[in-house]
Structure formats: C-alpha cells, structure tokens
C-alpha cells in the first residue's frame, strides 16, 4: 500500500537577519501579510494537502510563534459577548487540534538540513513534507496539495522538490536542479547544486521551499558535512539520493511565489495579497494608482 503524507516539518529556527531589527524580538514567521502571520498561510496550505501533524523546528526567541497556536479563551469570550461572529470564526479557524502540533528545538542554526534532521525522531518510516513559511505561494490549488497529488501519481515514493524557473543571474540564491529528463510539470533530476554562480549553474530551475522527503533523506543528513556557507544543507542530503541511484523529482508548480524572507519579496507579497482581498481591493488599488501617477508626474 502506498503511504500517505500526513506529517509536515516547518523549520523556523533561522535567525532572520534580513529583517533585523524587527526579528530581534519578533519571529519572522509571525510577521503579517495583510492580517495573517506567514505561518498561518503555511499551515492552511499544509491542511489543504491533508497534513494532520505539524512539527515546528524552533529556536530561542520563538515564543510568540508557540503562543499564536494557543487557544485564547479570553479573546473568544469577548468577541462572543460583542456579537462579533465573523471575527470569532476567523479566530477559531486558527485553532489547532490538541496534540497536532509538536515543537522541537534546534539549539544552533547549523542550516536547513540540520533543522529538518532535528525532527527525525518524530518521523517514522513514512514520507513527510517540509514547508518553509517564508516562501509564500499564491495558487488556485495550494502548492503542497499539487505536490502530494504528483507524489501519489509517480507512485515510486521518491523525494520531490518544488521547482521554479529563475533568471540565470539569480541562481546563486537557490538550490539548482541538474535535469535528467524533462516531463513537463515533473522533471527527473540527476544532480543538485546549492547556490551555484550563474556560470556554474546546471539549469535555471531553482528549488523553492516545499519538499516531500523520505526517511532515507533523513538518514543521508547524518553524513552531510557543512556545505555552501558552512551550513548543513538539505540540498546536499537530497542530492545524496541521486548518488545512491534513487529517483528525485522536481515539480514545476502552478502559482506565484513570493520570497517573504527578503524585504522586497515581502513588500511585493503585501501588495499582491492586499489587491487580492475583496474587502481591501478597491481602496488599496485606488491608492496604488494615485501613487503611480504622482511618481510619473514627478519624473
Ligand atoms: P533562511 O535562509 O531564510 O535563513 O532560512 P533565516 O535565518 O531564516 O533568514 P536570514 O537569511 O538570516 O535573513 C530558510 C528557512 O530555514 C530555516 C529558517 O527558519 C527558514 O524557514 N532555518 C534555517 C532553520 O530552521 N535553521 C537553520 O539553521 C537555518
């Protein structure tokens, strides 16, 4: 019988230095796009894909993240009393089932591969998802759901990474795929390189923060030494699968990805998600149009 993907790891133990000073006291994942923290978008995407267990790899200073998932009876009671039913429903939609969340500590930010490895004891012999909440993807069908469907279709239980075409000069910011066979939305991969210079990049197909991995990849992390930037890279552990002659797939997702780990990406996402919201669209679009015409007039 094929195994279902029911667990997801959310590595949130990074230092978030690109958002200092905010991240001095606020976890990056709690920063809000319109009115929801980044982590809520990630949780909603995971739920849509059938995930039942949510494993957070956290670190010092991430208390606000843990608090966010607690039920807030005082607030719920106040909203109920005030008859604010819509807000009450919004709040309730963020509540998590008891026992569905686990927190594991990464004591030192040794890299994404290491963060995933820290959760190894909560993963038994089954495939699992990894979601990086700072990659926010707007999509009609949530991207992890697209991937779980593709994973079930391949039927061979091989690791899969979300992939997206990027301009060649940007490859040094990503893990990049060396493509063996291009089958359209799926590509079979023969190699992966973390943050290659444009001239060394094997393609312009970059890995984005959604993965479906196998316990074998976790075992590979045991052997991975510090890679690019001295960090224990998840890319290297996945590439090890290929070295062992096991399949690895890239999945070209349908959706628009925003790099909310960077300031420019976060601002772009704010504009896109603001414009997509029915309750804000008119006012916000008018404001943006005014801004653009003022800018043009000043030029
Ligand atoms: P980033 O590369 O964005 O690093 O990590 P960062 O620390 O979050 O942010 P900057 O670069 O300092 O601004 C990608 C993802 O991997 C997690 C991060 O929390 C983020 O979700 N991560 C990274 C860990 O959990 N542990 C690590 O040691 C490194």
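^ Assign residues to that structure.
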């Amino acid at each position: 019988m094929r195994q279902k993907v029911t667990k997801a790891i959310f590595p949130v133990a990074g230092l978030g230095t690109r958002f200092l000073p905010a991240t001095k006291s606020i976890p990056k994942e709690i920063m809000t796009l319109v009115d929801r923290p980044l982590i809520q978008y990630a949780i909603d995407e995971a739920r849509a894909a059938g995930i039942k267990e949510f494993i957070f790899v956290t670190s010092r200073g991430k208390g606000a993240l843990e608090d966010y998932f607690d039920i807030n009876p005082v607030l719920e009671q106040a909203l109920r009393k005030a008859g604010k039913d819509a807000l009450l429903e919004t709040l309730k939609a963020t509540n998590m089932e008891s026992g569905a969340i686990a927190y594991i500590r990464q004591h030192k930010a040794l890299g994404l591969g290491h963060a995933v490895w820290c959760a190894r004891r909560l993963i038994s012999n089954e495939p699992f998802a990894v979601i990086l909440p700072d990659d926010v993807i707007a999509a009609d069908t949530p991207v992890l759901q697209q991937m779980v469907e593709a994973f079930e279709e391949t039927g061979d239980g091989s690791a899969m990474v979300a992939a997206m075409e990027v301009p060649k000069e940007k490859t040094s910011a990503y893990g990049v795929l060396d493509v063996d066979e291009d089958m359209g939305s799926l590509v079979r991969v023969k190699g992966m390189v973390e943050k290659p210079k444009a001239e060394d990049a094997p393609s312009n197909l970059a890995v984005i923060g959604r993965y479906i991995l196998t316990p074998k990849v976790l075992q590979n992390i045991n052997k991975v030494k510090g890679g690019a930037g001295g960090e224990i890279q998840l890319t290297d552990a996945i590439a090890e699968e290929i070295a062992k002659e096991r399949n690895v797939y890239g999945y070209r997702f349908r959706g628009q990805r925003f790099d909310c780990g960077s300031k420019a990406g976060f601002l772009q996402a704010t504009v896109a998600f603001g414009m997509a919201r029915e309750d804000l669209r008119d006012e916000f679009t008018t404001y943006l149009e005014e801004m653009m015409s003022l800018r043009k007039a000043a030029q």
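The mean pLDDT is 92.
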